[in-house]
Amino acid sequence: MNMQSYYEGNPYQDIGGADTIRNLVEAFYPKVIQDPDLSPIFPEDIDPVKEKQYLFLTQFFGGPPLYSEKHGHPMLRARHMPFPITPRRAKAWLRCMSEAMDEIGLEGPVREYMFQRLTMTAYHMVNRQDQETS
Questions:
Q1: Residue 5: inside a domain, yes or no?
Q2: Cα 18 from Cα 39, distance rounded (Å)
Q3: At 121, which CATH number?
Q4: Which of 1, 114, 131, 107 has the alpha carbon at shortest distance from 56?
Q5: In this structure, is residue 116 part of a structural domain?
Q6: Could you report the per-residue pLDDT of 38-77, keeping only the tens digit for each?
Q7: The domain containing residue 121 runs over which residues?
Q8: Does any domain span residue 95?
Q9: Residues near 89 by Cβ (< 8 Å), separated by ≥ 6?
Q10: Is 6 within the bounds of a domain?
Q11: Which of 103, 107, 116 is nearest to 14 (CA)?
Q12: pLDDT for 4-14, tens place per residue?
């Protein structure tokens, strides 16, 4: 089912803007760091990654273009190419994001819409097959 068919709004505004995006990022990264599939591809100092994610998600979900103002066009696939992103890692990333959404109480059609967009993006980032990471 196309989730957009019953959600046509501005996710950024509808979820509460900057504070909710910040809460989502803060709930998300502890899960990433603890995930055995994801932690190896993230740096020890996660703070710069968290800040970029905050800027990106703000822009991605209809807020101000903070990421582009600071870093230029997102070019997500190119920026992620150095990291071995497999279908398994995309799935793990989405699981962590879903858990973070649960943790902050994000629900309803806006959450479904946001998660659908993140799912398409996560699988677009895949640049290696699972067996290539060992």
A1: no
A2: 26
A3: 1.10.490.10
A4: 114
A5: yes
A6: 999 999 999 999 999 999 999 999 999 999 999 999 999 9
A7: 12-132
A8: yes
A9: 37, 38, 41, 126, 133
A10: no
A11: 107
A12: 457 889 999 99
